[in-house]
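User: I'm curious whether this sequence folds into something compact or stays loose and floppy. Could you predict its structure so I can see for myself?
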Amino acid sequence: MKLRDVKYVPFSDTWLKEKTDDITRYLRLSAEFGCSNEGGRIYEDFKNNINKCISQFQELVLAQKDDDEPDDLESIKKLRPEGPRRLLSHLPDDYLNRLRGAFYGRMAGCTLGAALEFNPIETMKAWAEYFNEDFPPTDYWTHIKDPAAPHYITGRKLDLTRGHMDAVPPDDDTIYTLLGLLTLEKYGMDFTQEDMAEIWKRYLPLDGENESRGCYWGERIMMTNLLNGQELPEAGLEANPNLQNIAGWTRADSYGYVCPGWPEKAAELAYKDCSVNHRRNGVYGAMFMAAAISAAFAVDDPMEAVRIGLTEIPENCLFAEGIHWALEHPCSDYREAADKMWAVYGGMFNGSAITNAIHVVMGLDIGKKDFTRTIGQTIAMSGDNDCTGATAGSIAGAVIGKEAIPSKWTDPFRGRMHIYLKGLPEYLDIEEVCGRYTALARKFMQF
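Assistant: Here's the prediction. I'll summarize afterward.
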């Protein structure tokens, strides 16, 4: 399948939102007019029709097959182009410096992007101009909207700004990295999807009855289904329209960290993780990112890591086409990159695995090995830019090592990260976390 074969059904986000708002107002109006019982009946009919529509869409997409985009691992492997598969047979001497670069790089990129996540380019640019800051940013933001508002359960929005951090601020994209670590520590490389689900149920906090906190989109849907008694694989797919969204590859970093220079194995582990609640290009995105991060420990150019990442996914899938397109259309800055990308991929969701991966690749290409330029240009493209900033920072950091990351990005964390997982301390020591990754990598690389 190629992009030219994708034909989007025209629809209006505005119209859908306005009609939903109309339903809400009519419900209140029916009560005020003394006919709340009848209004409630109409609303129940509306809910049933909506759920029927969702079920029809789910059946439609899950029934579709494409020879270029299989879902099982063995078929995926058969469609890969030639690749190195494994670059290193043992832990490299500079592994710890590169790991610290990747981990701190991920934390920094996530924190920078989270402050204005999903804000349009013009909004971010106007925000920077109002407070006399650089755009694309060259340091953490100094101001944020609603600074006293909560941020991921245990934090505040203010924690994301320069001068107000005492650790890596809490975020789902840093928590996913830890969940990967916890899964690998308990179950090793042979973990099953059921093992992973148990880790998620054990550590992710709940809000009320069977409502998961600290994760969103397809991850929250899966957790809610699991907590309500559904089993895998149904729990990962039921009422989940996020099968090709970005979240799958935001969970991929741990697998690259523990398989340095072994992109094939990193991609296999990411497949097991991501395919629990993603399909097709959502899964390929996770495999690509895990392989690219793994390769970044063994190369000296971020773009070489990207090209190696492509060798672990189907050669003719839509995701691979998007990355090849990005490689064939180099840009000078974030504005050119975003404009070119949306001119081609304009029908896609702003949280798509593909569009956001293109942001990462273009950001790495624009930034070269300059860490500040890489994450600044990447998050300036908008989209799900705490995720894109985190992954661009992870890949760049693994290539250049922590010693090459300017201290303004790492010193504010004071060597620790703020988390919200059940049964764990509120803060984790970053060096201790890196030590735990090192122990796993040393063990796994013996195979």
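Summary: Residues 36-63 form the longest helix (28 residues). The longest strand covers residues 416-418.
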